Amino acid sequence: MTIRTFEIDVTQTVRVVLDGRKFDEAFIAEFRQSFYDFDTLEEHAEHIAQLQARGVIDLTATGEFIEGYGPSEEMGIKASVIATDINVMEAT
Question: Is the pTM of this model over 0.90?
Answer without folding.
Answer: no
